[in-house]
Amino acid sequence: MSRFTEVKELIDSLEEDFTKFYEKGNKAAGTRVRNGMQAIKTLAQDIRKEVTDRKNSGN
Q1: Quick check: helix, strand or coil at residue 21?
Q2: Taking all residues of the chain, what is their mean pLDDT, rounded to a whole number?
Q3: What's CA 14's distance to the chain center, in Å?
Q4: In degrees, to the nearest 5, what angle opens at C-alpha 56 toward C-alphas 53 and 58?
Q5: Rg for the chain (alpha carbons), in Å?
Q6: How far apart are CA 26 and CA 17, in angstroms?
Q7: Can you tell me the distance from the alpha carbon of 13 to that of 6, in angstroms, rounded to the nearest whole number?
Q8: Comparing C-alpha atoms, which of 1, 2, 3 is closest to residue 40?
Q9: Domain range list for the chain
Q10: Which of 2, 30, 32, 34 could be bridged to 21 by S-S, CB 3.0 to 4.6 A?
Q11: CA pair distance 57, 59, nearest whole angstrom
């Protein structure tokens, strides 16, 4: 479950940058959003692999 919490915290940490980018046009915030979304994608892939491995091992 700690990985789920990690995903939630990462999403929460990006909220301010989303606002800066979409409402104020701050391009640096857009870069931070892109980097954060890439980190979320990587983490999600790791979680999917872990779930699949656990499901297939019978745990």
Answers
A1: helix
A2: 94
A3: 9
A4: 110
A5: 15
A6: 8
A7: 10
A8: 3
A9: 2-50
A10: 30
A11: 6
Residue from 48, 36, 46 nearest 8 by CA: 36
Read off the pLDDT band of 25 (50, 70, 90): very high
Angle value at C-alpha 34, between 30 and 39, nearest 5 degrees: 145
Q: With the C-alpha atoms ordered 9, 12, 14, 16, is the resulting torsion angle positive or negative?
A: negative
Query: What are the structure tokens assigned to 50, written together?
Result: 């872990």
The C-alpha atoms of residue 58 and residue 41 are separated, in whole angstroms, by 26
pLDDT at 59: 62
Tokens 């989303």 correspond to 18
pTM of the model: 0.83
Output the six-digit token pair for 44: 């999600």
